[in-house]
From TrEMBL:
GO terms for cellular component: cytoplasm. This is GTP cyclohydrolase 1 type 2 homolog. Belongs to the GTP cyclohydrolase I type 2/NIF3 family. Pfam families: DUF34_NIF3. A divalent metal cation binds at residues 65-66, 104, 226, 230.
Length: 270
């Protein structure tokens, strides 16, 4: 029999809370350490839809990437959004565990999974960690063969989970790309680090920094949906847990990206 304490111990050892940023909130959020766990659901976001998925698959634990309670709240009343989620989890007997920035810097971690989805080789950290030369935020790797920037955008769109956002590209479409930097989630703060690559794939890029970066000779930029860049890690951590503990693991494919509609502008100039 596996209990919640066993799963927490494994995840805390694999993704130590000390690796998380000081502002982050990781680890066990809800659940009794002696509760039996035979099914674990892995999600990017703990939202009502993924909570109901956990109920439907019979999970006793949700492992989420994004913290539900990142910032302080004054109430968990069921009349509030987060309160309703917490009450539903408790009523269903489902625990909640978060691995966020500690999973981002791990090796392998969130960005390794993203890099492997693109087929990148010879990975190294985009911004190395002080803890270890193998750890750090983001990854830089080499494509199996050179591609044009336009082709790389198409490869990324096929490799990542489908979203309404898709993948946007900025820069010279004909530029040949060999080295690619990636960062799962919001990679805007690491644009400077990505100068070492020919292209940089991440999410949540802002207009002005992206424009200046490309105009000043920076790498081609690829901007994908936040959820899509972090979803590949769920397969990695689920395999790690099922390989270490006798539990059933389920990976959620529910798209929790907030952008759900997209329409390309007409090509004709009016």
């Amino acid at each position: 029999m596996t209990i919640l304490a066993d799963v927490v111990a494994f995840l805390d050892d694999r993704y130590p809370p000390a690796w998380a940023e000081s502002w982050d909130r990781v680890g066990l959020v809800l659940g009794s350490f002696d509760a039996e766990v035979d099914t674990v659901l892995f999600v990017v976001d703990c939202v009502p839809e993924t909570v109901e998925e956990a109920v439907s698959v019979g999970a006793q634990l949700i492992v989420a990437h994004h913290p539900l309670l990142l910032r302080g709240v004054s109430t968990l009343a069921p009349t509030t959004y987060k309160g309703r989620i917490v009450h539903r989890l408790i009523r269903a007997g489902i625990g909640l565990f978060t691995a966020h920035t500690n999973a981002d810097v791990a090796a392998p971690g969130v960005s390794d999974a993203l890099a492997l989805a693109l087929g990148l080789r010879d990975l190294r950290p985009l911004r190395p960690s002080a803890v270890s030369s193998d750890m750090g935020t983001g990854r830089i790797g080499t494509l199996p063969s050179k591609l044009t920037a336009a082709a790389l955008v198409e490869v990324a769109a096929r490799a990542l989970p489908p979203t309404a956002w898709g993948v946007r590209g900025s820069g010279d479409a004909d530029r040949m790309i060999e080295t690619v930097a990636v960062c799962g989630g919001s990679g805007d703060p690491f644009l400077g680090d990505a100068m070492a690559a020919d292209a940089y794939l991440t999410s949540d890029l802002r207009h002005h920094p992206a424009s200046e970066f490309v105009s000043n000779g920076g790498p081609v930029l690829l901007d994908a949906a936040h959820w899509a860049t972090e979803r590949p890690w769920l397969d990695l951590v689920a395999a790690e847990v099922s390989g270490a503990l006798p539990v059933r693991t389920v990976v959620s494919d529910i798209d929790t990206d907030p952008w759900t509609m997209h329409c390309s502008s007409p090509k004709e100039v009016r």
